[in-house]
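Action item from last week, closing it out:
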Amino acid sequence: MQNFISLPSSPKRVAWDIVGAVLILYDLFAIPMKVFEPPDNLFTEIMDWFALIFWTINMFASITVAYVKDGKYEMEFRYIVRNYMKFWFWIDIAVVAPDWTFTLAQLFMGSENNAGSSVKLLRILRLVRCMRLLRLAKLKWIIASIKDLIDSESIDILFNIIKMLATLIAVNHFIACFWFATTLIDTGPSWVQIHHFDKDDVSWGYQYVTSFHWAITQFTPSSMHVQPQNILERTFAITVVILGLVGFSYLVGSITGSLTELRRMNEEATKQFWNLRRFLKKSGVNIQLRVKIEKYVEHAWHAQKASITNTNLPILRLLTEQLKNELNWAMSKPHLEVHPLFKYMSEHCALAMQRVATKALTRKLLARHEPFFHAGEIAQHMSFLTRGRLKYIKEGQFSDIEWVDADEDWITEPALWTPQWVTLGELLAERVSEVIEVSSTDFADAIKRTPQVFDRVSTYATNYMCWLNKHRATMSDITQGDEVSEEIEAMLWEQLDEDQPQVMRQENR
């Protein structure tokens, strides 16, 4: 059954939630507008049927989505059903059941033009459709799941501005509908009658636009000719003005704050680049190097803004040492597990790999055409490419080029197992790239604390050096993972005695 369970952040579930958000917003505007008695048409009928079918199916889809419990996703089906039955099931049934009742009653009883008690029942059931607005409680976490897909600070700010504007429009929409609803209560002459909006030649659309215009003027210094005409309308107008002093100020303040933050970000980038150009010019740097530095810094600046790392989030300093280790390994795991040894260590001793990720790993950026190393240098790290592409040219074999692809190959592995590994060629960045370096000394210190893992790594290192000596004629600084992964994985188990099963049981424990 767990094969049908999906995470809330999965693309399919987010797409489903976006459709749900659109239907909630449609109900948010369509249901209050019923006070204007707009005529039904093909579009409203299609939307009503689509919403009814969607939310019915959603009740079954909701029990196939994991939820967070004690800091992890609960994937067990029976617990998901139990959690759904605690709250959201009752909200959904309170909305879907009246919808089906109204729809079936309308089909069997006919239109509202028919006389009799069925007409009164249909009108009562139409009012029950207001229960749909209970789905507004879902809109908050649907928006949160959509925001999780945004990884740009600028887009996130724009999204907040759009959300605030939509909230402002929705609030005024409700006020406009309630303002018109006051005219349906007989408390004396109403603004509709005084200003002649009750004539047959005045459409419901013009009545709505007029009401919306009045609602907007209660939040702004603007004015219009429509004014309250009885005590109910005047009381409602006073209430809106008082609430508007707080609500409108909050919404406008939020929009202004977001626009200020967006402008500050652009001004910060402009100032930084201006200071950079001024510094390079005053330092007497030649024009070729200046252009090269400016181009790379511009690329790195935008790349940094587009991504968030643990180095530019001060709040991560609050994490415990163990949580920091787990976070560091989670970020590096997809890149290091292309090597069978690191994949084995991840599966059998995650604690050791968490220490390795914190103590032995560093990240390095390379500009376009920048050398990573030259032939004849002593390598002190084993490296993995995380993004970009590298070009390797072995000394004396300039016509034979090897390409290093991200999350597929690895670089200078012998540096991890030998005191001195002299590079055999030159490695250049074909484009802007990022590399993870594994320090040989820090790697050894990290795995020594786990004897079982240290023994297995020692066995692998011995087998690897024997394999390397057999291929001395074709040695390279680059290991093409897609070609030798199976051969490398076999080195984890070679030259083991009959105690191998016992060793594996000890490591699994």
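Closing note: The chain has three domains: 1-149, 151-307, 316-508.
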